Amino acid sequence: MRVVAAMSGGVDSAVAAARMLDAGHDVVGVHLALSQSAATLRESARGCCTIEDAGDARRVADMLGIPFYVWDMAARFKDDVVEDFVAEYSAGRTPNPCLRCNEKIKFAALLDKALALGFDAVATGHYAQVVERPDGTRELHRAVDVAKDQSYVLGVLTEDQLARSFFPLGDTTKPQIREEAAERGFYVAKKPDSHDICFIADGDTKKWLTQRLGEQPGDIVDTDGTVVGQHQGAYAYTVGQRRGLALGRPAADGQPRYVVQVQPDTNTVVVGTADLLGVDALVGDHARWCGPAPDGVVSVGAQVRAHGEEVPATAWADGDQVHVRLERRLRGVAPGQSVVLYDGTRVVGSATISAASLDRHATAAGSS
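Structure tokens predicted for tRNA-specific 2-thiouridylase MnmA (368 residues):
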């Protein structure tokens, strides 16, 4: 097969490209230029798409003897990922830009361009596994290395996209990948991993958002409406947050308080006690299925963070929505996060959480 190997300049994508070549595929390396003003050098483990990264990817491609190109997708990345990220926070939601990047860039823009140029598939260095069923269709599964598993951020892929995707690292642990890279003589064998969020190099999301949205002073209120503090922008807060609240009035019961709601319409942040954070009922929009949509109510595992716990649940599809009932409560679930559903190690699909609540009727019934 003719395969585009997405090469970020890191160790994972380098080994992924090498493995695709070893498997007998006709491989071309492609580095995605996602920044409109790329830095020359990487200043930390955060960030991506520096000129240094592109150079590292090119050196690996040269060692493998494969063609190498840089595809400029900075404008598409800005519109579909960065601006979406800002808009979601402005609306009081907490997005996951990695899922959006996989959906809109790596397995839409990149894959579409590859297919238009006559390639058959795209390979990346994600830690996940694609399993082919007897009928030739494919399933997305968790990686062998649980600590590095990235199936959560790939939960937006459709069955058609899976049919044209390769994840060569899914059966290997990260230490083994670094060892293999060293044996192949790759300079990037010891290169530090990148950390989210890639376009916020210093990791200070609040400062980054403030630079783009400006200060928007408002009230922090208790659940009874009492003003207990001030903020400089409700967009900088997320459900479940405890640090950085700087409340002027301590709680009467002395218990710590958390963000329980962000109200962008009134520019208000609502805080309350930890017991208000527990939810067991989720509604997700923009449902995407890695195969057929669930038929009726099905038992699944639900995960709401990239490295969060998987909770037993039931779920059912309703058009573009999915409804999820968790068997136990989760804390700090915010609108805008993604819920990814599993059947064992298999990814069933995903949705963007639009509402999270405590199903008090179900709770009361279960306790009777």
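The first helix runs from residue 11 to 22.
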